[in-house]
Amino acid sequence: MPPWSLPSLLATLVVIVSAFLLIGFAVTAYARPKLAEDFLMSFASSPRTHYLEQTFRLVLGTSIVVLAPTMWQTTVFSVLGWSLVVSSIVLMLLPWKVHHRFGERVLPTLVRHMTLFALGVFAFGAVLLFALSTSLMHHGAV
Q1: Which contiguous run of DSSP H or E holds residue 73?
Q2: What is the pTM of this model?
Q3: What spatial distance separates the first Cα and last Cα of the chain, rounded to whole Å?
Q4: How far is CA 4 from the centre of its chain?
Q5: Distances in Å between the alpha carbon of 94 and those of 14, 57, 67?
Q6: CB distance 59 to 68 below 8 Å
């Protein structure tokens, strides 16, 4: 794929926006923990939220797969991208209630350990931006 093809540009935009959303969530978790908790608890709460969440995951995963060949830790990001794509498709094919029941079991633990979870989310967003910066340098954009 040419360095700045439309898919590459769109994937770059998706990864940048996603990374900043992750970092924003982490900051929110520290500044307004109840708001972050309410957001997390809404995951898989209805068919609409379930499919919306999976669509976002699918778009991010696909974007990472498109960019992975030029990103730092190419193999890691390729595996991560494909993992997001495959797991999103599987979750889309399963009845949303399966995901909902899983969330009912897991989300209370996540909320209980929100500080640690937010730290991991912040780190993931930062690592995404770093890995993307190597892709941009590869394309001569930086």
Answers
A1: none
A2: 0.90
A3: 19
A4: 23
A5: 26, 15, 28
A6: no
Contacts of 57 (CB under 8 A, 6+ apart): 84, 87, 88
pLDDT tens, residue by residue, 6-58: 999 999 999 999 999 999 999 999 999 999 999 998 888 899 999 999 999 99
Q: What is the mean pLDDT of residues 116-132?
A: 97
Distance (Å, whole) CA 62 – CA 55: 10
Are 20 and 121 within 8 A, CB to CB?
no
Give the type of residue at 43.
F
* Total count of residues recorded for the chain: 142
In whole angstroms, how far apart are CA 103 and each of 52, 98, 100, 109? 15, 9, 5, 10
Which residue carries 């989310």 as its tokens? 121
Q: CB pairs under 8 A, 24+ apart, for 42-46?
A: 43/103, 43/107, 44/96, 44/99, 44/100, 44/102, 44/103, 45/100, 45/103, 46/96
> Where are the domains positioned within the chain?
6-138
